Amino acid sequence: MKNKIVVLIAIVLIFGAGVLPSISANTKLKNSFSPLTKGDIYVDDDFNESTPGWNVTHFNKIQDGIDAAVNFDNVYVYNGTYNENIRIGTLIQEKKITLIGEDRDSTIILGVPGEDAVVTVLSSDVEMNGFTVDGNSNELDGIRVTELKQDIVLTNNKIVDCARGILLLLTTKRVEISDSIILNSEVVGIELQESDQNDIINNDVLENKVGIQLTAASVQNSIEGNIVSNNNLEGITIGALSTDNTLVGNNITDNQIGIKLSASSQNIIESNNIQDNDMEGLLLTTLSNNNIIEKNNFIENKKNAVYKASKRNTWDENYWDDWIGLKIPIFQIFPKVIRGGIIFRLNFDRNPMLEPYVI
């Protein structure tokens, strides 16, 4: 028995010494949201020099923590309201870092008027996770990713009261926007400007002027699994020569127009629930050609689908609550007719579904 006790004490001494900094029981670090290592940087708006137990790098301001970081550092931010606009990197120096908030709802970056955005990303290879970004009553963009940046992850954030919630500027690519809430943007919730190969996944995009907008030849983007609801104009709009984009598995409800395509071709709209939109569920306008629309639900929109000055679009295996075959079974041999903007110009879904999909 004595030998076992000696071995146990030795193990504790070997593995317990020098691993974490000395932390007082009355500090926040006792219940840290991440492992503490001396190479990481910590930000706490409540920190003061008399706080016992701190022997890691620490700051009161998020920007100070970012400025002190080097590439591939983690910057951890504790709960609090940080009244500042932050910049990740500069025009001449990138900061390839991970910025982590303790709790999305209570780690708040409240923008100060006078800048373009609350958060400006001037570096590639950046991750930002776990923040509320508040645009201070729609005066500022929330998160702005600048030109030529790529391989960025924006996940588990809440973006509220901004001009544009998240804006990807020209030539950005491979940005993931996921598991976030984008709410009450004055202009648009998520906007891509000539930005390619991005993933917009599992977000709630609610009560913005426009929910998600792709413009200026944004190509090969994926919009998947989002709730896009109660936006004042379009839920999702794809325009200005934006092509080869995919919309899959989204719930697009209670907007003025569910999805609008304008001068946008070769997109895939598949397995979406398009429901209860005040005007059109899907509107194709102005040379929106060669798009594929299949396996979607069109339910209780004022007009389920309309196309104008568009051609060679493929409609297949959608559920239409206004298909005559649902009301009069004998007419199930007939396709669903989709009307265009000119009388007698018709498209057809030749395989309409009898039951809505579960999406």
Describe the structure.
It is a single chain. By secondary structure, the protein is mainly β. The strands form 4 sheets. Strands 2-1-3-6-9-12-15-18-21-24-27-30-33 form a 13-stranded parallel sheet, covered by helices on one side. It has one domain (43-50, 72-349): Single-stranded right-handed beta-helix, Pectin lyase-like (Pectate Lyase C-like). It has helices at residues 2-16, 62-68, 324-327; strands at residues 41-43, 57-59, 74-77, 80-83, 86-88, 98-101, 107-110, 117-121, 127-129, 132-134, 141-145, 150-155, 158-160, 164-168, 173-178, 181-183, 188-193, 199-201, 204-206, 210-215, 222-224, 227-229, 234-239, 246-248, 251-253, 257-262, 268-270, 273-275, 280-285, 292-294, 297-299, 303-307, 314-316, 319-320, 336-339, 346-349. It is built from 3 helices and 36 strands. A hairpin with a 6-residue loop joins strand 35 (336-339) and strand 36 (346-349).
Which descriptors would you attach to this protein?
mainly beta, 359 residues, disordered N terminus, single chain
